[in-house]
Amino acid sequence: AQSVTQPDIHITVSEGASLELRCNYSYGATPYLFWYVQSPGQGLQLLLKYFSGDTLVQGIKGFEAEFKRSQSSFNLRKPSVHWSDAAEYFCAVGAQGNTPLVFGKGTRLSVIA
Amino acid sequence: EAGVAQSPRYKIIEKRQSVAFWCNPISGHATLYWYQQILGQGPKLLIQFQNNGVVDDSQLPKDRFSAERLKGVDSTLKIQPAKLEDSAVYLCASSPLTGSSYNEQFFGPGTRLTVL
Questions:
Q1: Beta bridge partners of A39
Q2: What is the pLDDT of residue B1?
């Protein structure tokens, strides 16, 4: 069965500092991996996705993520955090075709001045 | 392009009452999903439709939850009777059906249900 683990429930970073959010997955086949962001009262917005190819993927809002098969990880990074990045971040795994996503429990990001 | 629409955005009911949520997917999207997001957790699939047929409802508590997607467009999710543990955000998502290996899911803003 697919599963996603996000070890950090809550992270606080200073504005301008770098950010890394961790994600580990369990999946028997080649995973389709995603990072979503959810602001309060909003739906989920896709930041980036990995299907195959280059293991470093670029997304919107300056985010990137690196797929490491040997570590079953798909960590999200941003070199310089802005106050507007404060939100809940979800890592998810899916399979080929129109299949439902399996989400982690999320990491809440707080940004301080 | 209009996004996924959901209504109501918020609903407060007492336990044992019934409630219904509505979702209008992006035009032309064949696949529709309902997810339940309990506070502090990630979304979990309740039911998946393709056109007006059910693809996966294995996680839907069928003794109290029901969902339909008449005519393969709009969908409604109903809870009857509601329990305290049904308090959550109910997210609707839709995706197109193409020949691609994966079709992105687009999420609506959700309906926040509070059961007292």
A1: none
A2: 65
